[in-house]
Amino acid sequence: MTTFAGPPGLPAALAGISFQVETPASVDFTAVTELDTATQRPDLPAAWTPAEVEAELYQRWVDRRYFEADVKSDKPPFTIVLPPPNVTGSLHMGHAMNHSVMDALSRRRRMQGYEVLWLPGMDHAGIATQNAVERDLAKQGLSRQDLGREKFIERVWEWKEEYGGKILDQMKRLGDGIDWSRERFTMDEGLSRAVQTIFKKMYDDGLIYQAERIINWCPRCQTALSDIEVDHSEDEGELVSIRYGDGENSIVVATTRAETMLGDTAVAVHPDDERYQHLIGTEVELPLTGRRIPIVADAHVDPKFGTGAVKVTPAHDPNDFEIGQRHGLPNLTIMDGRATITAHGPFFGLDRLEARPAIVAALRAEGRIVAEKRPYVHSVGHCSRCNTVVEPRLSLQWWVKVENIAAAASAAVRDGRTKIHPAELNKRYFDWTDNLHDWCISRQLWWGHRIPVFYGPAGEVVCVGPDDEIPTGEGWRQDEDVLDTWFSSGLWPFSTLGWPESTEDLKKFYPTSVLSTGYDILFFWVVRMMMFGLYAMDEVQPFNDVFLHGLIRDQHGKKMSKSKGNGIDPLDWMERYGADATRFTLLRGTNPGSDMAVAEEWAAGSRNFTTKLWNATRFALANGATVERPLPARDELTAADRWIVDELDALVSTVDTNFEAFQFSRACEALAAFTRDEFCDWYLEIAKVQIADGRAEATQSVLGHVLDTLLRLLHPSIPFITETLWTSLTGGESLVIAEWPKPSGAERDLDAKAEIEGLKKLATEIRRFRSEQGLNPGQKVAGKVRGACCVGLVDQVPSVRSLTRLTEPGDEFTVSATLEVGLPKGAVKVELDLSGTIDVVAERKRLAKDLAVAQKELEGTTKKLGNEAFLAKAPADVKAKIEERKATAESEIARINERLAALPEA
């Protein structure tokens, strides 16, 4: 067995997570292989083959309508709305992790008796979908302009029907227990009505307005971008320092975008910077233009950065725009929407990237370049859809005034109506809500919700709701822009339930119970849903709990990306290891707010875990495990029976506690440890002995009880294999609708626990001793166990023998090796007869090699510790380590010599 720990440098929450990977050959179920095949259940194959089962099983769940929520049910509601994937999207590892979380939450609540609604849908993904269709058109030599707006939109709908939504089928492969009867799309009729309704309401309330501001602009896509649609990377560029003016009245500024100097309308310095006191309020000539611009004092300027003076280009930089507003500076636009220079002069008509070196050359020719630094690495924004460098641009756009609705979103978390998990991310949430700038909601696209504002021939401006009459007649036109995709997805928790109508779904399932999403979109989506939900739903929050998980990284803690070649496709994992193994791997690494690392060997380890569960259940079924008989009374159970029932009871509480705290990693680790260690490695072997000793009926009931409960607890995490095993064990209809286990509340039997802990220690020490004697794990050897009665383990001797492969000694038994194991109540002596069980020549040769290594270590450490010069200089911890190494070598030499002395002569 190999343990793969998490990679270095990951958050502390991942530090304790490990994945144990066993090769199938090391899964030791001797009992399974020794069974008469005639006793095995015919409906449970010898091996678990996910690919042959999962699709059919999932369809059975859907056909039986297990996932469909009943709005008329009197059960308490539990609602999750699926973060709507882009219609262009496919399942990636982040989706797989989040969907595993949501499905686990939903399945558990359904088993607990809640009316569960997990509502699916897709986002129209304005810019992503439009780009996809435009690329498709380009293959035919066409552009959207060739088709015109109406025909292009028709083409997008056709594309959506043909290619969109493949991620939904991939979600089914993962096992998502979603109510497909309620599937929504952000541009379906109902959601479009919600968008128009809230736009009209906010417009009438003065919360939506039009203004010129600096926005992110993509020159290729020809639209404004939200911050989340801008990817920043460290790019190589050039930092040039330019002297404005001459002599004592000159001032030097530095820039990476020399072309924007054509739009400068001021130079700014800090008001307390003594170097420039004599220049504040004066004017300086802007090179190449002949214009004179003022030197202003503004506290935004950092006097310690560069020269302490900055050029101010209000129409092409967000910070400069703010400075310009404070000082009443003109906004001079010197580029068009394609980032072509529009300022008259020798650079007119040049692309910005062509103009940059041309302007630097012209400044150099005039002696204005003071310094040039290249390469100069700095952060540059790129359009996430086409990778074009984004241009800050002054533009007339539609905005949402967020001050009041952001304050409401902040208050809902502060007063506990909505709880964020982990609580440490509250601060980041408040950083957003308390410092939010107005939100640009307009996009210069054709695909999306068109802004419902109409302009009349006489300057009229009319905003229409879904039931309002649209102005018609000569000269009337609708605004060309569409709404930011996040505007419609911000309505998702209530628009999908029928708002603005007062539907039964809305009354039953709002507010939603849990939002599960990544912390990276805390602002972009979570805050906006909070603002919209509280505004539209009379201060009722859209969610009770927000679970924020981290990002998926590779096994070395590096961010996954196509360019790095370290991305993992969850569909590949599902093909090779099954959906259950994929889910379990991801859930086992999911902690609130922490990034998680994944590697293929961990998925293989999870596959082996499911294999072990499969084999264990087959063993139990073949040995008569049953749920038909009730669990016997405690006094009718053996110590091992009472111990495993108590351990199971504790597991139920542990799993419940961690699920409620969104600690999926801890819950899965507890489930894995119990299944692998307590149940499979110990109890099953003891059960085999108990059945052989005539205690079959009680043991079979315990086996059935433990498996029934364990499979229920595992079902939310690994639904396919648990469904298959549980229905075979119980004959029940489906685990999907089975009852979730509850702790019994019974007092734990500490005596039984102590007895089994003693058994485990004794067996472990015998196994270790056998290994030291050169015996193979499966090799049987005659042995005697003495003193078990004195330490309370007499009833466990048969199990100890079975666990350690000790056979009953015969008449010719000869003691070759002796082990004494200390236990709380005394010592147990174990005697082994090794005659004829090992190759004495080979064993002496191996031990001689080990002895030489230990003697060399002892010689080296003794020499160092005898060196006075070394001891005088060496730190205390170094000396302590060498002393520890010496003691270990001495102990090893003694052990090997003892072993050599015990071996018969070759």
Write the layout of secondary structure elements.
Layout: E1 2-5, E2 18-21, H1 30-34, H2 54-63, E3 77-81, H3 93-111, E4 115-119, E5 121-122, H4 126-138, H5 144-147, H6 149-163, H7 166-174, E6 184-185, H8 189-204, E7 208-218, E8 223-225, E9 230-244, E10 251-255, E11 266-269, E12 283-285, E13 292-297, E14 309-312, H9 318-327, H10 352-365, E15 369-383, E16 391-400, H11 403-414, E17 419-421, H12 426-433, E18 439-440, E19 442-443, E20 453-455, E21 461-463, E22 477-478, E23 482-483, H13 485-489, H14 492-495, H15 504-509, E24 512-518, H16 522-536, E25 543-549, E26 552-553, H17 570-577, H18 579-587, E27 596-597, H19 600-622, H20 639-660, H21 664-692, H22 696-714, H23 719-730, H24 750-772, E28 781-786, H25 797-804, E29 806-807, E30 817-823, E31 826-833, H26 840-865, H27 868-873, H28 876-902
Helix pairs in contact: 3-18, 11-12, 11-16, 17-18, 18-19, 19-21, 20-21, 20-22, 20-24, 21-22, 21-25, 22-23, 24-25, 26-28
Notes on the structure:
This protein has 906 residues and is α/β, with parallel strands linked by helices. The chain is 42% helix and 17% strand. The strands form 11 sheets. The protein has a 4-stranded antiparallel sheet with strand order 8-7-16-18. Strand 30 and strand 31 form a beta hairpin. The model is unreliable at 1-42 (pLDDT under 50). It is found in: Cytoplasm. Monomer. Residues 839-903 form the Valyl-tRNA synthetase tRNA-binding arm domain.
